[in-house]
Amino acid sequence: MKARDIAMLTLDVIAGVAVLIALYMALVWVPDAANLISPDEKVAQHIFYLHMGMNVDAGLGFLVTLIGSVLYLLTRRRIWDMIAVSSAELGVVFATAVLATGSLWARPTWNTWWTWDPRLTTAAIVWLIYIAYLMLRGALEGAEQRARFSAVYGIFAFLSVPLTFMSIRWWRTIHPTVFSGSNPGAQGGFSLGPHIRLTLFVSMIAFALMYAALMAHRVRLEQDAQAVQELKEQLL
Amino acid sequence: MSESGRVTARARTDNSPHEWNAQTTRVSPAKSYLRKVLAITWKDVISELRTREIFSAMFVFALLCVFIFQFAFDLQAENTRVLVPGVLWVTIVFSGVLGLNRSFVLEADKGCLDGLLLAPVDRSAIYFGKMLGNLIFMSVVELIILPLFMILFNLPLWHPGILVVIFLGTLGFSAVGTLFSAMAVNTRTREIMLPILLFPVILPVLIAGVRMTGGFLDGTALAEMQNWARLLVGFDIIFLAIALMTFDYVVEE
Fold first, then answer.
1. What total of structural domains would you count in chain A?
2. How far does Cα A231 stand from its chain's mean position?
3. Between residues 48 and 77 of chain A, which touch chain B (CB distance below 8 Å)?
4. What is this model's ipTM?
5. Would you call B146 an interface residue with chain A, using a CB distance cutoff of 8 Å?
6. A232 inside domain
């Protein structure tokens, strides 16, 4: 346990420093994007780096939930369920942040808080699916059954995402009047300058580290909760 | 085949599969599996024919949906072509969830599911049986509301393409829905849980269904909607397979 404490503390410090560096680079160091004109857009553009970083975390979170779910069903070891739920919670937190920061960026850039763009819509649906995942967990009584059911749902949740994205993209492209061409650079068509690329890279690494650090704490919390539960059962 | 002959054939299924295979020449394993699936479906159909609980609720609910949409959107001749595919699919999905909920609530109520699980059949046969039952209930409701939609909105909905799309959509819906229904009955909130679990996952079915129904109404060629057709069939195959693989985990005790 001692070695684990040290490892976790080290990870915390590294992740904390990395996030601070990423914040500094994204908000102060990196120059404004050259292709933007209005001052509002220039300020808002700095959100992009953090937005992408948190996007990585949300994706990681849901992917790890899938892996934990599959491994739980195969091995039936509680630790995989703990990893799955911890990761799903973190994924939902970061997905919420991604939606919020995206909205903040969209207001000055697209002149609206929200559009029914395929990416945005898919992100919102994914967010809803994992909220449903957490609600399912909350509504189940036995620990073993909760682990089993949510593992099954975790698999369905992840596998439905590509189909949802495809269907929403086609749904949009068939409607040419609603949303075409007013999406500057969102498809990755613009070339990134060296500063921008470096900041983006650092931000993604920093947030991935933050995810790892938070996961370590969240899984340990789950393990402690189980230990407390077992002690309670012994006493009663 | 005499009645006694059938009974012995059924009794043999309890023996080891090896012996059973050697003794029965008339019933192949695939046929006997199919018979088990149909027996479970038949059980649901009979109990439904006696009570008419699920069907009447789904049907009346579907009717109410139509009226609510009518008042909400003021469906007129000039906008029905655009709006009715959506209205139709939302009606199907909402009334379908109502039926799916009952599907396993009835089983859970008096320990019926435990009885079903004790039966000497493969778990996947139980899944297929229940899924088929749900598919039948939903299809019957759809076959009644579809002409109704035609009358009320004056649209040529009785199109072979639309019928196939509705069938494929309902198949995907009940494939996922049957599994989730088995999970939802075990939650504290029971019925409330199912739509929350189900709707975000079956969204591709809904979108593809609405698009293709609208496309057929507008006379779009199937070749132009190939991606939707593929998505629908792909969804059905993928999720039927995953539901089959995971159903064991949901009903084990």
1. 1
2. 34
3. 73
4. 0.82
5. no
6. no
